[in-house]
Structures are given as structure tokens and as C-alpha cells.
């Protein structure tokens, strides 16, 4: 898939506003969960009340906003984004997250985050890839909603083992102490940005750290939420 300036990334139709990156038709066609829990983002009966899982074991964040499940076309665009640092694509993907958040905000009270931060990659992995995709998104999102972007807010102090080979409890153990918070977040509303949230153990560990440091609330913003 090659980018064409001023055209929709998906259908290649010319766009009225080229910075949007996606036409309104393709935007409406994006797959969405019919109803997802506003707190954990997993399929649920009601999209305004938290689900039974969250009532029994609340995740350490207060809200999760996402665009779609990990499926085409977003999964394909994300691969393109990760392996070719395409700025035009990052603008479009950040805009999709922001549109989802605005939409969610109409349904329920969501604080505008004072600080936006990205899930950090370990230095070695960032060096290998050349950039952190969540950082690019967080930077654009902060610009889009007038929040403070804090690129140095979190530091990954341990690389940890590859997460997807581990069970849920082993993931949590693997991540314990993996991040360090470098800024004062007392009384501030925070949004943590990642491209994909799967089990939620990484954003969960970061949210725990932020809440323990006195953050007023933590929202997780991502492009794709998977089971
Ligand atoms: Zn299109
Ligand atoms: Zn839930």
C-alpha cells in the first residue's frame, strides 16, 4: 500500500481535507465493536456502564478508548506504520483515536487529560526500530486536544521477556518494576497511549504506577483493543 498525497489511505479517493488521511465513507466502514465496556474495552451488553468483569476486578485505569478490534484495515495500516515511519499515516491514526475519544465523551463524562504519555519501548527495541510508534501518536494526540505531551514521563527500566508467550499472571510478574515514572502527576488527569492493547497488563502496570503516584485518573487510549 503506497501513500498518495491528498488521497484516502484505504480507497485512494481524493480527499477534500488531505490531512484527514481517510474519507468519510471508509471511516464509517471501519469495524467497531457493537458494544464495549467503557472501562476495559471488551465486548459487553452496555456501553455506558462497566461490565461484570470490571465490577468484580476493576482494572487500574478508569476508562479505555479505542477505534476497533485488531483486524483489517487498521491492523494492516498499523503494520505499515510500524515498519515505515510514515508521518502522514500517524496523523490519520491519531485522528481516529481522537474521534473515538470525542465520541465516547458524548456518551459519558471523561476528563480532558492534562498530560498525555506513551507506553515506552525499551531503549534496545526503540533503537532497533528507530522510533516508538506510541510516542508519535501521543505527540499528535496532545496537540489535538491541547494537553501537555510528556515524552520523558515514563522510562522502561527493564526489557522483560517477550510478553505474548506468557500467561496473564506471568505477564504481570514480568512487568513488575519494569517502568519508572519521571514526572509529578499528583492531582492530574492522565491519558496513556499505545497502538494495541491486548491483555492490558502493560497499560495496567503503568496505570497502577500513576495512581500510586497520586494521579487523579488514568485513561488508556489505543487504536486496537483485542481479547
Ligand atoms: Zn476512502
Ligand atoms: Zn469491563
TrEMBL record:
Kindly list the residue ranges recorded as spanning the membrane.
Answer: none
SUPFAM superfamilies, A to Z: PRTase-like (SSF53271)
Q: Which domain of life is it from?
A: Bacteria
Q: Which Pfam families match?
A: Pribosyltran
Q: Which GO terms describe its molecular function?
A: glycosyltransferase activity
The residue ranges of the Phosphoribosyltransferase domain are: 162-225
Keywords from UniProt, A to Z, are: Glycosyltransferase, Transferase
PANTHER family of this UniProt entry?
Answer: DNA UTILIZATION PROTEIN YHGH
**Protein family (similarity comment):** Belongs to the ComF/GntX family.
UniProt protein name: Phosphoribosyltransferase
Q: What organism is this sequence from?
A: Winslowiella iniecta
Lineage of the organism: Bacteria, Pseudomonadati, Pseudomonadota, Gammaproteobacteria, Enterobacterales
Amino acid at each position: 500500500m503506497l501513500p498518495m498525497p491528498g488521497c484516502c489511505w484505504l480507497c485512494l479517493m481524493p480527499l477534500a481535507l488531505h490531512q484527514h488521511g481517510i474519507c468519510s465513507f471508509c471511516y464509517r466502514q471501519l469495524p467497531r465493536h457493537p458494544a464495549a465496556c467503557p472501562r476495559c474495552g471488551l465486548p459487553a451488553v452496555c456501553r455506558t456502564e462497566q461490565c461484570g468483569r470490571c465490577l468484580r476486578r476493576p482494572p487500574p485505569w478508569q476508562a479505555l478508548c479505542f477505534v476497533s478490534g485488531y483486524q483489517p484495515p487498521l491492523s494492516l495500516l498499523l503494520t505499515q506504520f510500524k515498519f515505515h515511519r510514515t508521518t502522514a499515516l500517524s496523523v490519520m491514526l491519531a485522528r481516529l483515536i481522537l474521534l473515538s475519544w470525542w465520541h465516547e465523551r458524548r456518551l459519558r463524562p471523561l476528563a480532558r487529560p492534562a498530560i498525555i504519555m506513551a507506553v515506552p519501548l525499551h531503549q534496545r527495541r526503540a533503537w532497533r526500530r528507530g522510533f516508538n510508534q506510541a510516542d508519535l501518536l501521543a505527540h499528535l494526540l496532545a496537540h489535538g486536544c491541547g494537553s501537555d505531551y510528556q515524552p520523558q514521563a515514563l522510562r522502561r527500566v527493564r526489557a522483560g521477556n517477550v510478553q505474548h508467550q506468557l500467561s496473564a499472571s506471568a505477564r504481570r510478574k514480568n512487568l513488575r518494576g519494569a517502568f519508572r515514572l519521571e514526572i509529578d502527576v499528583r492531582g492530574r488527569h492522565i491519558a496513556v497511549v499505545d497502538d494495541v492493547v491486548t491483555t492490558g497488563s502493560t497499560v495496567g502496570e503503568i496505570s497502577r504506577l500513576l495512581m500510586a503516584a497520586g494521579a487523579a485518573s488514568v485513561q488508556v487510549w489505543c487504536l486496537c483493543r483485542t481479547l
